[in-house]
């Protein structure tokens, strides 16, 4: 009789597995509730597009700041302690929305988001390997994929909360931007105070939920996986990594990919508004983009059984580029649908780049993964540049024409350039570094 295979999740670690898996939903929620906030802060605080884009800069720059310290902390102490610290930072950032709203300070809101993503960097750097450690190595990848399935649920939850509890309730949306700008100072202050409280409340509730999770991690008997000094040394490992063209190129490609993803998912609301669709009514298009993204990931995962990771990355980047060109040069509702369709081709990019860059790195992969998480800084830098393009001619989205299309359409030339960088990397990988197999292991952290 053949020996039975080990379970994906053993009964003895089921409770810890469920608790850690919930973290995947928590950071998915934070990511996708924040994308519509660029437009919300712009309207309530009467910002231009560049100023509003600092929401994404503050959010994603936190990853760049804290990813490597998170990896060092986890290596010195343990995954569990790293997650506890990450939850503490996450909760602190979310709860700081309360004094930020009381002070009506945009800078304070940005600081809150920056601190919040310190926590997300700790969670994303450590939760995935912790999940993989909760059982047999034979079932580690299946266990991580199971946990990853809860990330998009959190992302959808973030979009739903943004629509139902924030965008649909903003007074500035009800009265209209032009009427809001025409109010006297006293009336405008009343609307601003009300709307900032509406933006604040979901984040404060989120902070309280995160505190509950933190308490669970403290009181529940969670398995410890201590990291020990392997004698390799961080400096030597980093030097080895950056000498490799495949790894260094992967970090660069990852930064451009994340920048493209955040631009396409953030400015879908501005694109929709330019054709007469309100922010609240544009949320279903954001949801559709996420659903199409997940379908693309399933299709892409299947295709990786037959096509090498580098080649499929190249094909999908070309597909994304074509859809972006259509988004730029087809105005109106069809252009919006093309923007939604880009998500299908973005679907496999993050995990594929991640896997290709780390394949065969051994123990160096621990620090290599941190730089790939730091590459999320692309999501901080690129949206601000797109905001500058949107401000050409004024703070509206159709103030002027560039190459015969409104500036909101033309601004998607930046994602187009990003996909070009990804395509070049994919081509180099499959032409210069033919893989011995087509599965770009190890699995990536579950960014949707």
Give helix % range. over 70%
Mean pLDDT: 87
Compute the number of structural domains. 2
User: Major sheet: order of its strands?
Assistant: 1-2
Largest sheet: 2 strands, antiparallel
- Beta content: under 5%
CATH topology of the largest domain: Growth Hormone, Chain: A
**Low-confidence runs (pLDDT<50, min 5 residues)?**
436-442
SSE-based structural type: mainly alpha
Distance between the termini: 42 Å
CATH level-four homologous superfamily name of the largest domain = MFS general substrate transporter like domains
Topology pattern, helix = H, strand = E: HHHHHHHHHHHHHHHHHHHHHEEHH
Specify the number of helices. Answer: 23
Give the second-level CATH assignment, the architecture of the largest domain.
Up-down Bundle
- What general outline do the C-alpha atoms trace? globular
Report the count of strand segments. Answer: 2
CATH class of the largest domain equals: Mainly Alpha
Radius of gyration: 22 Å
In summary, what is this structure?
With 448 residues, the chain is mostly helical.
